[in-house]
Design goal:
Elements: E1 6-7, E2 22-25, H1 33-40, E3 50-53, E4 71-74, H2 79-82, E5 88-90, H3 95-104, E6 109-114, E7 122-123, H4 132-135, E8 141-146, E9 159-160, E10 166-169, H5 184-194, E11 202-204, H6 209-216, E12 225-231, H7 234-240, E13 250-255, H8 259-264, E14 270-272, H9 275-278, H10 281-285, E15 290-295, E16 298-300, E17 305-306, E18 309-310, E19 313-314, H11 321-331, E20 334-338, E21 342-343, E22 346-347, E23 349-350, E24 368-371, E25 374-377, H12 383-391, H13 396-410
Helix pairs in contact: 5-6, 6-7, 12-13
């Protein structure tokens, strides 16, 4: 018979963690600050520990590493991890490739947060059902914080309490992000996107001012559905407005937002599923009238989007945007990239090949580009017409420069 899980004191974590372990920690809104402190307190006894997880900039601030021998692998570069230097390996992968990487990784221990067990003794992964929810059966050591503030969510069966190696109970607020609100630029972009969203559409988007503005611009729509890797507070505005279809739950892998959101997601209106479902190309291709809306830092006159290099350095890979772009293409969906036309004095519509960093979404991954100056529908256009459409949605002060840059480029051929 399997031994009952040990009731853990966080200062006794070393008793359960093999020295030099490969450890998967739950990030996003399921990160346990108490477990992070306990790991950092292990010191030399942890050996050359290897830690990996999904760490969101601005949300997950823990360093996790217990000593100078230990190393971190991350798929998003937070400022806190950047300060750790060469002990951090940054892998700029899309979500399907992150899943493949983690499936191949010989992980010895998992550290995570769950809701209290139900009457059947099963704990929900709550707001963070992305990777660990699928991977835990292959991980021998499972250490959990049972948090009464973690909501029990629908969609995934969770993890039986008896399968824990050790646990402790602590009520603590979930990591969250305040709603950014809407400014005039975001409102104009949101309204322009809404014109392309029919009643009955399925939406995929992320967090931030523009996704929030777009969702709020859709409150008069009907029978909308959500299928996304990530949801935030703006989804609640659609639900409260009666714009969502009653026959299909909001499907996501992770919720990040305010206590209002975390309270709401326990409702059967929401279904939380692992990445193997939310980002699966065959699942995405079957979604009815899918409209994907993703952000970029810049778009060049070929129609290529750049979303990974910021003034602070390379921060991510393409994330889930490229998975959804491929799935939408296969299923006949519509793929929108939205961004402000400028950042201060700098145009965010840029000359051909002029974006910073790697291309995140290629020109065949984008149908429409939207700024506060309108929408450039690139479908079926030649190179010259694509460039002209993008110049027309740039900030007026930059259009002459962009038109000249395109003319200079095109006349070479």
């Amino acid at each position: 018979m399997k031994n009952a899980p040990a009731c853990l004191k966080t200062d006794s974590l070393a008793s359960y963690m093999p020295a030099g372990s490969s450890v998967l920690v739950q990030g996003c809104s399921g990160e346990s600050a108490s477990l992070a402190r306990a790991v950092q307190g292990l010191g030399p006894s942890a050996g050359a520990m290897s830690v990996t997880g999904i760490f969101v900039p601005g949300l997950n601030r823990a360093g996790w590493l217990p000593n100078a021998e230990s190393k971190m692998t991350t798929f998003f570069m937070t400022p806190e991890l950047r300060r750790l230097g060469d002990v951090v390996t940054f892998l700029p992968l899309c979500y399907q490739d992150i899943l493949g990487f983690l499936r191949r990784l010989p992980i010895q221990a998992a550290l995570f947060m769950v809701a209290p067990p139900d009457l059947q003794g099963v704990c929900s992964f709550g707001t963070t059902v992305d990777f660990l929810a699928e991977l835990w059966p292959q991980i021998p050591v499972r250490i959990a914080q049972i948090n009464p503030s973690m909501p029990r969510t629908n969609g995934h069966h969770g993890i039986p309490f008896r399968e824990f190696t050790a646990y402790f109970e602590e009520d603590s607020p979930l990591p969250g992000m305040a709603d950014e609100g809407i400014d005039d630029v975001a409102a104009a972009i949101g309204a322009a996107i809404a014109a392309y969203v029919p009643n009955g559409a399925t939406l995929q988007t992320g967090l931030g001012r523009i996704p929030g503005a777009m969702l709020r611009a859709l409150k008069q729509h009907q029978n909308l559905r959500i299928h996304s890797g990530l949801i935030g507070d703006a989804v609640l505005d659609l639900a409260e407005a009666g714009a969502l279809a009653g026959d299909t739950p909001v499907t996501a892998g992770v919720a990040i937002g305010s206590p209002r959101l975390y309270k709401a997601v326990a409702d059967p209106l929401f279904s939380f599923r692992p990445v193997s479902h939310t980002h699966d190309l065959s699942v995405i291709a079957q979604l009815r009238n899918l409209v994907t809306v993703n952000s970029a830092l810049s778009v060049d006159l070929f129609g290529q989007a750049y979303a990974e290099l910021t003034p602070r350095g390379l921060m991510s890979g393409p994330g889930g945007a490229s998975d959804f772009a491929r799935g939408a293409k296969a299923g006949g969906g519509l793929r929108i990239v939205a961004l402000p036309a400028s950042a201060g004095e700098v145009s965010r519509i840029v000359p051909p090949g002029g974006g910073a960093g790697p291309v995140s979404l290629g020109r065949m991954d984008i149908d429409i580009v939207v700024t506060e100056y309108g929408a450039a529908d690139l479908r079926g256009l030649c190179h010259d017409a694509r460039a002209a459409a993008l110049v027309n949605i740039a900030a007026p002060d930059h259009r002459e420069m962009l038109a000249a840059a395109w003319h200079l480029y095109a006349k070479q051929f």
